[in-house]
Amino acid sequence: MTVKYLTDQHGKTTDVQLSIDDYLKLLEKANELPEYVKEGIERGKQQARDGRTKSTAEVMRKYDKNA
């Protein structure tokens, strides 16, 4: 993969340039989810279908440091 960094007149990197083929490969790779993540999503969807959901307030109480 060939990557070109573009800079402004102050030398600050402003852009990255790569070939369309490399971009498409990178995009495809970025959209791949590990199997355990896909399984977790499916579990969550099933829990929602079963009505086993919690409100945001309920979830946040679990993480509230002042509680």
Low-pLDDT segments: none
Instruction: Give the % helix.
Output: 40-55%
Please give the number of β-strands: 2
SSE pattern: EEHHH
Q: What is the CA–CA distance across the termini?
A: 51 Å
Protein name: Antitoxin ParD1/3/4
Region (Disordered): 42-67
If you had to describe this structure to a student in words, what would you say it looks like?
- The chain is of the alpha+beta class and 67 residues long.
- The chain has one domain.
- The chain contains three helices and two strands; from the N terminus they run E-E-H-H-H.
- The protein has a two-stranded antiparallel sheet with strand order 1-2.
- Strand 1 and strand 2 form a beta hairpin.
- The longest helix is centred in the middle third of the chain and has 15 residues, at 35-49.
- It is elongated, with a radius of gyration of 21 Å.
Strand and helix layout:
Layout: E1 3-7, E2 13-18, H1 20-30, H2 35-49, H3 56-63
Antiparallel strand pairs: 1-2
